[in-house]
Q: What sequence folds into this?
C-alpha cells in the first residue's frame, strides 16, 4: 500500500511537464492546475498527520473517511484555488519530502486527521483513492499504478457495501477503471447503481 501510493504520486509527478495547466480537467470548475495544486498539498498534509501518532482508538475507517469528504468540499476547493494561484503543481517536491516517512510508516498506528482519528493503513487507502481518481481527472489522464488502482477500487467497493450492499454484484461486474469512475461520479450510469452513486465526489 505504501509503495503503491508513492508510485502513483510519482507517475503524476512525472507527467506534470507534459500537462497543459490551463486546460479544463474532469473536475467541474477546476483546470489541470487546480487538480495538481490539490494533489501537491497531500504529501505535506500526510506528513503532518503522521506526526500525530498516538495510542488513541480509531474513530473512523477508510469508508467513513471517503464518505465524509463531501463535508469538506468548500475547504478543498478554496485550498486548491489558492495553491493554483501560487503555482503549487510540481508534485515531485512534496513527494520527495514525504517519501521516507510514508514508506516506513506503521500501518497500524493511529493518527489524527481532519475527520478524526484513523489508522495509517486506512488513511493511506484513502490517499490511494484520491491519487488514482485525480490522476484520471487530468487531461490527458495519468495511467494509474495497477496496485494503487486496485486498492482504490477495493475501498470504493467497501463504501458501496455500507451504502447499498445489494448492489455489490452489479458493481463488481464493471471493469475496475469504469467502477472507479462510476463510484466517484466521473461517469454516469443507468440502472440500480444510478441511485446509489456517486459514493463520493
A:
Amino acid at each position: 500500500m505504501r509503495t503503491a501510493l508513492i508510485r502513483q504520486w510519482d507517475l503524476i509527478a512525472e507527467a506534470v511537464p507534459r500537462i497543459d495547466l490551463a486546460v479544463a480537467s474532469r473536475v467541474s470548475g477546476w483546470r489541470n492546475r487546480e487538480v495538481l495544486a490539490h494533489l501537491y498539498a497531500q504529501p505535506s498534509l500526510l506528513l503532518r498527520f503522521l506526526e500525530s501518532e498516538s495510542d488513541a482508538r480509531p474513530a473512523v475507517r477508510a469508508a467513513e473517511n471517503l464518505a465524509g469528504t463531501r463535508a469538506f468540499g468548500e475547504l478543498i476547493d478554496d485550498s486548491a484555488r489558492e495553491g493554483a494561484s501560487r503555482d503549487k503543481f510540481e508534485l515531485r517536491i512534496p513527494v520527495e519530502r514525504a517519501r521516507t516517512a510514508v514508506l516506513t510508516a506503521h500501518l497500524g498506528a493511529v493518527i489524527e486527521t481532519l475527520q478524526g482519528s484513523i489508522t495509517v493503513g486506512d488513511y493511506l487507502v484513502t490517499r490511494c483513492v484520491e491519487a488514482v481518481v485525480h490522476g484520471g481527472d487530468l487531461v490527458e489522464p495519468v495511467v494509474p499504478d495497477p496496485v494503487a488502482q486496485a486498492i482504490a477500487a477495493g475501498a470504493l467497493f467497501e463504501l458501496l457495501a455500507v451504502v447499498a450492499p445489494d448492489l455489490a454484484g452489479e458493481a463488481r461486474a464493471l471493469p475496475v477503471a469504469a467502477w472507479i469512475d462510476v463510484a466517484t461520479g466521473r461517469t454516469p450510469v443507468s440502472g440500480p447503481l444510478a441511485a446509489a452513486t456517486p459514493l463520493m465526489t
About this structure: The two ends are 22 Å apart (CA to CA). Residues 32-50 form the longest helix (19 residues). The domain at 2-145 is CATH 1.20.120.450 (Four Helix Bundle (Hemerythrin (Met), subunit A)).
